[in-house]
Amino acid sequence: MAWRGVHLSRAARLRVEHRNLVIEFADSGTATRLPLEDIAYLILDTPEVSLTGALMTRMSQCSIMVLGCDDRHMPAWTSQPWGLHYRQAEVTNLQLECSLPLKKRLWQRIVCEKIRAQAVCLESLGAQNSDLLRALIPTVQSGDTGNVEARAAVIHFPSLFPERNFLRHTDDLPNGLLNYGYSLCRSGLARYLCAHGFIPSLGLFHRSMANAFNLADDLIEPYRPFVDQAAASLLGDRSSSEALTLDDRRALALLLEKPVSYEGEEMTFFATFALCVQSLRRAMDAKEPEMLTFPIPLS
Predict the structure, then answer these.
(1) Check: CATH 3.40.120.10 for 88-291?
(2) pTM score, two decimals?
(3) 4-78 has which CATH code?
(4) Is the predicted pLDDT of residue 82 greater than 80, yes or no?
(5) Domain coordinates of the chain in residue numbers?
(6) In the prediction, which pLDDT does 152 show?
C-alpha cells in the first residue's frame, strides 16, 4: 500500500522514468527519484512546477492524488480519474437508485460519527464539554431533522478554541489551518469517489447545484475533527492574526500519513479515504447505514 506523501514548495520539473517519479529541482540542478508505488499523494504548493502528460497518466493509474494550490497556497484543484473501477456502471446505478429514506439514514449515521469524533477530539486535547457532545448523539434523527449537527458545532468550536473570539469562515489563522486541512480531506475523498465509480456531485445531504463534490462534502464530516485537533495543536498560543506558514501547511499534510484505526486495523489516515468510499458502496447495496465506516484515533 502507498504510504509516502510528497509536498513540493520549490520550482521543479516532474516526469516519469521506469515507474519512478523524477523531481528535478530548478534551484539546485539536483534530482530525486521516488517509486510511484510508494506515493499516496503529491501536493504542488508552488506554481513553478511542470509535469509531463505521461507522468499524470501513470499517477492516475497508480491512484496517486495530485493536488494543486492557488496563489494563497490553499488547495485549488485535484486530479480525478474516471473509469478505473471494474464495475463502474453498477456503482453509478446503485447511487442513482439510492432512496431518499436510505439517504436520510446514511446522513444520520454520518452526523452521529462526526459528533462522536468531535468528542474524542476535545478529550484528546484535554478540552471541556466532550460529555455534552456525547449526550447529543442519541438525539440525532433520520436526516438530522433536528439539526443536531449545528448544535454540536456551537459546543465544539468554542471548546476547541477557548479564550478566542472564534468565528467560522473569517480570514484568520485558526480558519486558515482548518480550511487547509479540510481541503486535503475533501480532495482525497473526491478522488476516490471518482475512482470507485461514484458521481461526486450527487450527494446524500448536500445538494448544491453549484457544487461538483456534494458527496465528498457528505463523507468529510467525520473526518473534520481530525483536522480540528491538528489545527488546535498547531495554533497553540499564537495570535489569530498570524499568517498560515509553509511549516503549517507541511504539518497539516503530514496528518494524511498519521496512523489511525479503521475497523480494528492500523493504517494511515489517507488510506482510509478509499476504504470509507468502499464502505459507502456496501452500505448502499445492503441498505444498511451501519456498514458506512470511518476512522477513529488510535488509543
Answers:
(1) no
(2) 0.90
(3) 3.100.10.20
(4) no
(5) 4-78, 88-291
(6) 98
114-134 tens-digit pLDDT: 999 999 999 999 999 999 999
- Position 81 scores a pLDDT of 67
3-state SS track over the chain: CCCEEEEECCCEEEEEECCEEEEEECCCCCEEEEEHHHEEEEEECCCCEEECHHHHHHHHHCCCEEEEECCCCCEEEECCCCCCCCCHHHHHHHHHCCCHHHHHHHHHHHHHHHHHHHHHHHHHHCCCCHHHHHHHHHHCCHHHCCCHHHHHHHHHHHHHCCCCCCCCCCCCHHHHHHHHHHHHHHHHHHHHHHHCCCCCCCCCCCCCCCCCCHHHHHHCHHHHHHHHHHHHHHHCCCCCCCCCCHHHHHHHHHHHHCEEEECCEEEECCHHHHHHHHHHHHHHHHCCHHHCCCCECCC
